[in-house]
């Protein structure tokens, strides 16, 4: 045989050996791993999941941003609501208030020893208190109380002999009326010639007006329930 | 003759060593092509042995047959994959049948020689 034949035989055997061993190795590799089709499928799935993941991550970022905004908005809204509520409570007279004002003390005329007639004839009546309150309101009083009872929108001042009821609470003389407002205005409104103080003094009532730089009026302490009145729904 | 056999065995051993030591693993996708190519190559080798026993061995035919069969088998498998038909089965069947036939003929020649 010629040399080239031997060479070609050797070459062919070499190529065959490489081929077969390669195939062996690949097959063993396949047995260790997953089948090719499955691997492709899994790779595809992985890519899809990665895409999904990045999309979901972006969505999560977006949502957390929105949540943050909403939370910020909520705290602002909460603050606004609280401010509003505090204002409403202040207006309704539910909270104690402090400020400059006057204290007006009214007391019944002293009982004359062995005096004639019933003392109640000259006693301070609910009308008197009402007029005082009205006058003070007219003079710009922002908060009022009688003997610790805050005067609010639904406060009654009513003669319930032999007492006066304010906020369904009996009060007895001497009546201490606290009013927050400009002390000078309040005082002058009461002391105007021919005004209330003069009138009450004429009746024999002891009147004392004391301005204060700072006095505190308690809040309305009862709970208020509206059982019949309902707000009108505007629509 | 014996020199040829020894050369072939030496080439085979060298090829195995080479294949074991090449730090390269074919992707699994190509495993199918490689397997059919190896089958075709094996078929060619058996055909060559048979031809040698019949004293009809032609080196050119052998070499060309070896490579063209391997390439054709791999190509068939590749095209079959692309077309969605398991065309490599055709190569497997054809080469398998021929392998057995060649083996049978080689066996008979060996028996005749031994008699």
UniProtKB/TrEMBL annotation, chain A:
The keyword Membrane applies. Residues 39-66 form a coiled coil. It comes from the Bacteria. The keyword Coiled coil applies. It holds the Pfam family DUF881. Keywords: Coiled coil, Membrane, Transmembrane, Transmembrane helix. The chain crosses the membrane at residues 6-24. Belongs to the UPF0749 family. This is Uncharacterized protein YlxW (UPF0749 family). It comes from Desulfofundulus luciae.
TrEMBL record, chain B:
It comes from Desulfofundulus luciae. InterPro entries: DUF1290. This is Small basic protein. Keywords: Cell membrane, Membrane, Transmembrane, Transmembrane helix. It is a multi-pass membrane protein. The chain crosses the membrane at residues 61-79, 85-106. It is found in: Cell membrane. Pfam families: DUF1290 (PF06947). Belongs to the sbp family.
